[in-house]
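User: Need the bound-state model for iron/sulfur cluster:
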Amino acid sequence: MKQGPPLKLDPRACDRCGACETACPHGALKVGRTYLKVDWQRCDGCGACARVCGRRAIVLRDGGRRVTGAAAQPAHAKPVPRRSTETPRSRSAAAAAPKVKPVRPVLEPKGGKRGGFQWTLLEAAAMLSVTFSAFTAKETAALLPVFEAMPDDLEIPLRIGMLALYYGVQIVVLVWLVRRRGGDPASALGLRIPGASVRHALTSAGLVVAALVVTRLLASLYAYATRAMGLMPSAPTDLTTLFGANTSGLVLAILMVVVVGPVVEEAVFRGALLEGLTARFGVWPAIVAQALLFAAFHRSLWSLLPMFVLGAALGWLAHSREGLWPPIAVHALYNAITVAAAFLVAGI
Ligand code: SF4
Ligand code: SF4
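Assistant: Bound-state model below.
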């Protein structure tokens, strides 16, 4: 009986996220800017691509049932030569053997997006739990009465040490999660951009400026409106209290808030979380979900809206530029404005 291809493709529904390409264990799928194609001679109909596609751009034929072996072989594929050692007996034994569900691949041999590393939803959730737990531990420790009684010259270094520990824990866990599956942390987090052209870099720079202007403008309008309505908290967190209202405080604030903070937060939210969510739910649900979690992470009811807008812009930027450097740049510049404002007001 004539057997058609095991997959039905709908390139119009595809948003080029690349999750299917990464998930294919045989390198049978290629996703380009204008195409979505399958090498039917490699494809065995395992359905891994259809399972990760959140947009139903790839659907497994036969009502979603797994098609394997001979049933997956399309009519137009070249026949596979029979091995000389194969006997009728061994063939019937193989047919009677239970079908083993293929393990979902985690590394694509030929690299590709994120060096072929696909974050799973479980890993993304685990990373997020580590970040929230470390943040809660840091904030709880800072409320201990011992800090109140401590002189400034001891309290500030201790607070900065806790902040460094908080970031350090997250970096260690991120690297460990990637390394345990043999991945390259820089690639898996989108920090390596192979073959980026000058045009790509210029477009990214333009989008960074646009995203920064839009998010900062919206945050300023929001602050102005909430202040006018008397909704703004009277004493927002002051960076000069945390780092010290002097030049060394400013240097430390730049190091922690403008350099280390954005890199680590982007690695967690747009590096691991966005990728894990995208593979499971598709691009736009993932961008919205990670932006909501990013806003909740800042634990301020007042800043929920601007943080959500910032998180969504950073998520979209990470997805569209296929790397983490553009969102890191926006995040760093966004924080730099906050640091500059805090220290200018303090007269530093
Ligand atoms: S997973 Fe779906 S949406 Fe993403 S590239 Fe593949 S076909 Fe397109
Ligand atoms: S069905 Fe399996 S082998 Fe075929 S393209 Fe999809 S993931 Fe690759």
